């Protein structure tokens, strides 16, 4: 069975490719009525960008879940199927520790709404800034733009992309942190973000 990261790689890459092709079609029909041909370099640039960004977001979502575990509308299974006849208390102790962690207990952690709000707020702030900066930097480096120009483009493009992101990301984050398991969050974000991917592709002047 492929690992969660491998599955995320494959699914997110397919979704990013679809988003870029849709963006190219939209951009083509806005500018010309001639027959459409795929801009292969632009497609490859966006796919490579997606491949580079997937592990970063995968680790980010794992980090958020580790620091603020649990979700509002489901609980992860905490039952361990392996125990020993010599010491059956191992199972009970293990379950108690897992339950305590999932409920946000221990180490000063809290659970429920607190963990949800922390993940939501961090995703809208640190997560958004990280993703926008990485998008502008990576997509322009892949297009061959000089590093000095990339810095200027980050300053120029950050505000309009952030405003656009805030129009869709809060709803995606609310769903991710209430009903979507952590290993599926990057793919879920990519699926919900096909339209966002179209926007980014158009922004990158496909």
Automatic annotation (TrEMBL):
This is Integral membrane protein, Mpv17/PMP22 family. It is found in: Membrane. The chain crosses the membrane at residues 42-60, 120-141, 186-205. GO terms for cellular component: peroxisomal membrane. The keyword Transmembrane applies. Keywords: Membrane, Transmembrane, Transmembrane helix. Pfam families: Mpv17_PMP22. The keyword Transmembrane helix applies. It is a multi-pass membrane protein. It comes from the Eukaryota. Belongs to the peroxisomal membrane protein PXMP2/4 family. InterPro entries: Mpv17_PMP22.
